[in-house]
Amino acid sequence: MSVLFTFLGRPPRGDRSYQRVEYTFSDGRKTRPVHFLGWELQSITRPARVVVLGTQGSAWDHLLESDIRLGDDGEAERLAVIEAVERSAVSQSMLDRLAPLLSDELGRDVRLLIVPYCRTLTEQAALLRHFADHVDEGDLIDIDVTHGFRSMPMLGLLAALFLRRVRRGQMEHIWYGELGPGQGQGTVQDLVGLLSFADWLDALAVFDHTADYGVFARLTGPSGEWLESAAFFERTTNATQARQKLTTWANRPDRYPSNDPAVNLFRDTLDQRLSWRSATNRADWEAKLASSALEVGDYLRAAIFGLESTVTREVLAVGRSPEDFAAREEAGKLARSHYPGVRELAGIRNALAHGTRDRKLARTLDSPENLHGALQKLLAQVLDN
Question: Who is most buried in 88, 97, 142, 266, counting CB within 10 A?
Fold first, then answer.
């Protein structure tokens, strides 16, 4: 289902109504001169449901008489609202009696909703709840922030983010009608593109928590499949394949989409997050991956990559290939026999992988702080050998 949310405020002090404005869209389309942009948007976007949000003191009377005439059927209800607006005392029950009349007039479900003034966090949270109450899973959503308090554009953007998460809503447009310098002329901007910045921020937050750069795949267009593949190989502790995929991605001229303005804000940050691939050899790749895994609390992968880095370094030191399985087996046994830190790290790796609880490790595995501290110390020790 498609839903249009539109805010209703009050005309400037001293004015009896909003100015009548002819709005121009970015594609050159023009509206008819209207006082309230929401009514014009619903005729253009044709949503199944229109939800008008306003306070007890919003210009509900103006909404009902400037661009839409209800006729004699709604006269008593309209007069009651006009009187209540003067006292900033419009009630939800008054609007509930008018909503069916507007639904009949416009040919779609119309809901008129009293919302708080949103001056406190509690009231702002209540507004978001109102949004969620009128959206079903997967709905197509437009939000019009033209009218209402000056804080409403910020709250409207927050509502868009909220609905995408809690209702998996698909944001189609965030409309803002801007009054131009010419009398009665305005432009309509679509601010939905701002959500792309939020997408990048979300991806960075997930990455910083999980070290999984596969979350950037959908933001980087067709090249994202290489990031997803690299992330898979890293999660399966195959640093060589992960680096190959990352290098292929980094060398693609289209690794970032050219039509996303948000990219320029975030590409340096992402490149920095993936800089481990520039290390000189496999032992260094694995050492960097061990450190990054420890940073995000992925203790098993931190232990695995720490051990693999130690083994790789031993293999390289004797001139063997780090891809030689037999050489790695031999180097691993030598490292565990020569370096106590490697034995301890292997013990932690085995305990985490198999769920065993060696009595010697009881204190280490007793808390995140103990485990993090032990791994940090052991990684510094074995990687410096």
Answer: 142
Tell me the whole-structure pTM to 2 decimals.
0.80
The answer to whether 231 touches 212, Cβ cutoff 8 Å, is yes
Distance CA 252, CA 53 (A): 48
The DSSP string of 105-131 is: HHTSEEEEEE-----SHHHHHHHHHHH
Sequence-ordered list of residues with C-beta below 8 angstroms from that of 376, at least 6 positions apart, any chain: 294
| CA pair distance 188, 193, nearest whole angstrom | 14
CATH topology of domain 2-192: Rossmann fold (3.40.50)
Highest mean pLDDT among 81-85, 173-177, 360-364, 381-385: 173-177
Question: Which CATH number is 282-385's, of 1.20.120, 3.40.50, 1.10.3300, 1.25.40?
Answer: 1.20.120
Predicted confidence (pLDDT) per residue in 359-379, tens digit: 788 889 899 999 999 999 999
pLDDT per residue as tens digits for the range 95-148:
998 899 889 888 999 999 999 999 899 999 999 999 999 999 999 999 999 987
SS3 253: coil
Exposure letters 83-114 (e unless 16+ CB within 10 A, then b)? ebbeeeebeeebbebbbebbeeeeebbbbbbb
Distances (CA, A) of 268 to 193, 248, 262, 273: 21, 18, 12, 9
Computed over every residue of the chain, the mean pLDDT equals: 89
Helices 325-338, 299-317: axis angle to 10 degrees equals: 100
CA distance 289 to 158: 35
List the chain domain ranges: 2-192, 193-278, 282-385
Over 80: is that where the pLDDT of 258 sits? Answer: yes
Which run of H or E residues covers position 4? Answer: strand 2-8
The answer for residues whose C-beta is within 8 angstroms of residue 117's C-beta and 6 or more apart is 55, 123, 149
